[in-house]
Design goal:
Number of strands: 12
Number of helices: 14
Distance between the termini: 60 Å
Order of helices and strands: EHEHEHEHEHHHHEHHEEHHEEHHEE
CATH topology of the largest domain: Heat Shock Protein 90
Radius of gyration: 35 Å
CATH class of the largest domain: Alpha Beta
CATH architecture of the largest domain: 2-Layer Sandwich
Low-confidence stretches: none
Strand order of the largest sheet: 2-1-3-4-5
Length: 461
């Protein structure tokens, strides 16, 4: 029994027999529990008015009010109704047990006491009690968050109503106010999305990293052991070229020569797979890194690579189209002062849009045309020394967009995609991150039948 798992809990023992009290008190005290005692139901009810225990051990047969009546009173009181009660009894009567459970007890302990059984049952119900408390606390916190969100929504709704009343004579002011609200909503969406996604991705990356490190380390040892064993097998083959009929037959059955050849290749393949998982884990951690309140110097190439790795499943070939190639033409970028998590979100949004555009161009594939002009995304980075800015070009050779669409591409909630594929927030949020958060520029150039290019410009100082 782990004393540390019980040490922060308080128990109340109610029993009129001093011997029983002494025995059970010593068991629980040794387990590290804070123990209170009472010798009858009335005194137990009085103690609970001052100290609320985490669990009650209650004897059934007592003078005055018995255990059943005491349990009934505890369960009828809202302040004590949630405290788990375990009856202590020497009775083996099933009716007595059923009655106790029907009154709200959670378990029975039969006298004479078995130390390990007592501690095991107490630990189970204390853990359930603590989990219930934790869940109730989280539910309360969730309700508070919902109430705060409801209040915010009501405030926004009231503001919209007031603005609508003034629309005829204050049109320009209304437009400015709506734009301000939209920016606030974008910031709220971006903050909540990145916070939740960041925690989830960071947690997954952490959980992946531990077993991968374990497997990778063991594979290295396994490879060494296998080489040693194979070396010994070769030595045996040289020293005993005629091992006997039984060994020769078994070696032929398992195809020993093939096994000797294939086993190192198998280990090598496993190491490649583990390294791939490790790279994914690193990319997830890079993508999910939390931003500080001020800018930090970051390697943008790492951010782009992590975005590509996260979107790798969408770049691969599938039943309806060939794979989408990625051409990287990285320049010599210095570390760029930025909010890395937000810039990574921009990379994800723009590359995902490029993939969408290329998939649309492959809905009715012309295999000869695709073979001659493979679908690809080109990513170039460079420094403009005259303006002291870092530039990232993300270009696809998809269908392109007409000019009227290109001019609206960064508008709030504007999208050309069906409802199930787009919300109109991705590029709007990206524009806000680059322009407002980083004092940079995000531009879009598109030509129908040729493709689309996004250019991200971030100041180096």
């Amino acid at each position: 029994m782990n004393n540390l798992s019980l040490s922060k809990n308080t128990l109340l023992i109610v029993d009129d027999n001093p011997t029983n009290l002494g025995v059970i008190f010593n068991v629980l005290d040794e387990a590290g529990l804070e123990v209170l005692v009472a010798q009858d139901g009335e005194s137990a009810l009085q103690k609970i008015e001052y100290v609320t225990p985490d669990l009650i051990l209650l004897d059934i047969m007592m003078p005055g009010i018995d255990g059943f009546e005491t349990c009934s009173r505890l369960k009828s009181n809202p302040s004590t109704s949630e405290i788990p009660i375990i009856f202590m009894t020497a009775l083996g009567n099933t009716d007595q047990k059923v009655k106790g459970l029907s009154l709200g007890a959670v378990d029975y302990i039969t006298k004479p006491f078995q130390k390990e059984e007592v501690l095991a049952r107490i630990q189970v119900h204390l853990e359930l009690r603590n989990l219930t408390k934790d869940l109730a606390s989280k539910n309360q916190l969730l309700e508070e968050k919902i109430e705060e969100k409801t209040t915010l929504e009501k405030s926004l709704q009231q503001l919209n109503q007031e603005l609508e009343k003034r629309v005829e004579d204050r049109t320009s002011e209304l437009k400015q106010a709506l734009q301000t609200i939209q920016q606030a909503q974008l910031q709220l969406i971006q903050s909540e999305k990145m916070s939740t996604l960041g925690q989830l991705v960071a947690g997954v990356a952490h959980e992946i990293n531990n077993p991968v490190g374990f497997i990778k380390g063991n594979l290295t040892h396994a490879e060494t052991y296998i080489q040693d064993l194979l070396e010994i097998v070769h030595l045996y083959q040289q020293q005993f070229p005629s091992p006997g009929a039984a060994i020769a037959t078994r070696a032929e059955e398992v195809d020993l020569e093939y096994l000797i050849q294939d086993l190192p290749e198998l280990i090598s393949s496993m190491k490649v797979g583990v390294e791939r998982i490790r790279q994914i884990s690193v990319s997830l951690r890079t993508f999910s890194r939390a931003d500080s309140t001020s800018k930090v110097e970051a390697n943008l190439h790492e951010g782009i690579d992590s975005a590509l790795l996260i979107l790798q499943h969408r770049l691969k070939a599938n039943d309806t189209r060939p794979k989408i190639e990625v051409v990287k033409e990285y320049g010599n970028l210095p570390l760029v002062p930025c909010y890395p998590g937000q810039i990574n979100q921009v990379f994800i949004n723009i590359i995902a849009n490029a993939i969408d555009a290329l998939e649309d161009s492959l809905l009715k594939p012309n295999l000869a045309e695709i073979k001659a002009n493979p679908r690809q995304i080109t990513i170039c980075t460079e420094v403009d020394p005259h303006r002291n800015i870092a530039m990232i070009h993300i270009k696809d050779n998809g269908l392109g967009m007409p000019e009227e669409v290109c001019t609206k591409i960064f508008d709030y909630l504007f999208t050309t995609k069906p409802a199930e594929k787009g919300t109109g927030l991705g590029l709007s949020i990206s524009h806000q991150i680059v322009v407002e958060k980083h004092c940079g520029q995000l531009s879009c150039f598109s030509e129908q039948g040729v493709g689309t290019e996004f250019i991200i410009e971030i100041p180096l100082a």
